[in-house]
Amino acid sequence: MDNEQGRSGDYSVWGTIELRPPVPVTKLWGLTDQDAFQDKLNTAPRGAVGPQPAEADPQAPWVFVPDDDAGTDDQGRPRAIKYLRVRDRGVARAEVDSRLRDVTAAVGADHTFHGHLTYEGWTDDDGEIWLHSGAVNPEWRDTTPRYW
User: Fold this and answer.
1) What pLDDT score does 4 carry?
2) CA distance 138 to 104
3) pLDDT: which is higher, 145 or 131
4) How far is residue 4's CA from residue 106's CA, in Å, rounded to a whole number?
5) Which of 42, 50, 85, 143 could bond 127 through an S-S bridge, CB–CB 3.0 to 4.6 Å?
6) Phi, psi of 72 (to 5 degrees)
7) pLDDT in tens, 57-105
């Protein structure tokens, strides 16, 4: 379905954003334990280091990747999160914005975001999504080539 600008409302979104310094997992529990997300943000298992997902990664499309250097607590849960990894197809822009706003708010202004997500719409609407520390909304940068 097209929106008022003639662009598709559904996107494929993928990529990895590094959180610096790694974020204590306790700051993110509200995002992983709530029902606000249709598919909650999951935490990848310990040892899933690196920003790239495995081809057969059974995790949800939105995953927090632990910082293995931070270790685990006495219950085996990671102490800190190093990456937000996304691989989601057919997601509405409003849902992407909502999730990223929640991540930005939970992470807080004392952390920075390195990297970006890439998006592709159904009507040649392509670009990058950037998060900025302290900003309320993610920045969508259109990279669609223009031929005029």
Assistant:
1) 44
2) 9
3) 131
4) 31
5) 143
6) -130, 165
7) 555 788 889 998 998 888 888 899 999 999 998 899 999 999 999 999 9
